[in-house]
Amino acid sequence: MLRILLADDHAVVRQGVKQILADAFGQVAFGEARNAQELLGLVSNERWDVVVLDLAMPGGNGLEALKQIKVEHPQLPVLILSIFPEDQYAVRTIRAGAAGYLNKESAPEELVQAIRKILLGGEYISAAVADELVLYARHDDDQPLHTHLSDREYQVLCLIASGKEVKEISTELALSPKTISTYRARLLDKMNMKTNAELTHYAIESGLV
Hints:
Elements: E1 2-7, H1 11-25, E2 28-33, H2 36-45, E3 50-53, H3 62-72, E4 78-82, H4 86-95, E5 100-103, H5 108-119, H6 127-136, H7 151-161, H8 166-173, H9 177-190, H10 196-205
Parallel strand pairs: 1-2, 1-3, 3-4, 4-5
């Protein structure tokens, strides 16, 4: 019996993914997590063949949950299925140990193909993700400014650029407002900028939001 754990805070998304994978694989037992805490609890207490993980969930960030899973269960493959475009998070999640990255707008057949390859011990790299990996492999001096940010700094950049205030960001990332302000100061310094308006303009120009 194939065991697949789905982590997404939207029930309609989980139901759709379950239907696609059940039709493709037949005998499948599904687990469902609505937030990071439920995900980590299910990973610790039960056996799974693969995790399908969204990046934006309540109670903690999916990228941080991925990192924790790979530390505690390094052999457990994790496929990222996210609304974020490949150029925003694909490279960061692959570097963190994900076995693949898919955008939620991908065709159902691509999701099935990704799961099949991952279950055989491989990694699923779509054409879009492959392009991002090539760009990342360029010399550091040629890379955009945001590629030099830490994962947390990058998350804060994207959330600021999407119009969210410090309090909203702290709630979404489960961190204190003071910590968020510290990350903001660091990314401003690294990017040689002074205001949120500059960050927002950069993020829009770079296609990050």
